Amino acid sequence: MRACAKFLRLDYISDVINKAAALPPNTPLEKYRMLLPDKWKENR
Fold first, then answer.
1. Structure pTM?
2. Which is it for the CA torsion 43, 15, 17, 37, positive or negative?
3. How far apart are alpha carbons 23 and 14 in whole angstroms?
């Protein structure tokens, strides 16, 4: 795997972890599902 691809993967993982950590404890699972890339909107 190329270094650039590894960096982008780590950047994505850290972004998802940070967003998940910012959600309140009783957040519905649908909100977590929206953090996955196949649910991203163009304006994100």
1. 0.60
2. positive
3. 15
Beta carbons of 32 and 20 less than 8 angstroms apart = yes
Q: How many CA atoms lie within 13 A of 6 on its CB side?
A: 3
Q: Which tokens hold the place of 32?
A: 């977590």
Residue with tokens 């972890």: 17
pLDDT score of 8: 62
Q: Give the separation between CA 19 and CA 14, rounded to whole angstroms.
A: 9
Q: Copy the structure tokens of residue 3.
A: 């270094």
Helix, strand counts (H, E) of the chain: 2, 0
